[in-house]
Amino acid sequence: MEKINDDRSREIYEYIVDKDVLDIGCFTDFTIIDNPENIWIYGFLKKYAKSVTGIDIDKEGIKELKKRGYDVHFMSAEDFKFNKKRFDVIFAGDVIEHLSNPGLFLDRAKEHLKKEGYLIISTPNIFCLNYKIGGIIRLLNNDLSVNSEHTIFFSPTVIKTLLNRHGFVIEKYNFVNFHKIDTFKRLVQDILCNILGKHLKYTMMIFAKHHKINK
């Protein structure tokens, strides 16, 4: 395996290699997709997984990706449906915090996972160093805005509760720093988080499976 520079991709590699994977929110800007120096998660999955299917709500983006030969579909994370297809892994990278009803997404994911399949989620960590420092600066400037596209921010406890309510059990947490960051800022963040604790890194990675009920 070649060197993987993106923390999220490195975390998911062992779970997706030679597996059937569904990528939720597969589209991103074409300046990222067309630049080999950038990490496009769908492209990464396509390279290492047995198969990868993607869904997204960007209609024009999906249309263009289809023209390029990718297995992608215009579907929402909250109501996607494949009649017979089931997946070893469903990956939702920085998607769940944008949804109006994340519970609907989890129900759809549960329906589309194979028996021992994994749901892997990455989402901003509300307790990360960025938000702690940025929050103080914004308060001092009387600015209460954070991200107008997010409907919810997750802590480890909150996302564990949500997943448990929808039939999932978390097998592993990890914390990584933001993939869209320049080298110097990343270096500073990595040093501070290594000193103060990895739980202060920007992104939570959650690895979950179906909750097995003993009857």
Task: Give an account of the 3D structure.
The chain is an alpha/beta fold and 215 residues long. It has a single domain (7-210), classed as Rossmann fold. Helices cover 36% and strands 23% of the residues. The longest helix is centred in the last third of the chain and has 14 residues, at 183-196. The chain has 8 helices and 7 strands; from the N terminus they run αβααβαββαβααβαβ. The protein has a 7-stranded mixed sheet with strand order 3-2-1-4-5-7-6, with helices on both faces.
Total number of strands: 7
Supply the CATH class.
Answer: Alpha Beta
Order of strands, widest sheet: 3-2-1-4-5-7-6
Give start-end ranges of low-pLDDT stretches.
none
Shape: globular
Order of helices and strands: HEHHEHEEHEHHEHE
Biggest β-sheet description: 7 strands, mixed
Number of domains: 1
Our measurement of the CA-to-CA distance between the termini, rounded to an integer number of angstroms, reads 43 Å
- Mean pLDDT over the full residue set: 86
CATH topology: Rossmann fold
Secondary structure class reads alpha/beta
Strand content: 15-25%
What would CATH call the homologous superfamily?
A: Vaccinia Virus protein VP39
Radius of gyration: 17 Å
Assign a percent range to the helix content: 25-40%
The DSSP helix count reads 8
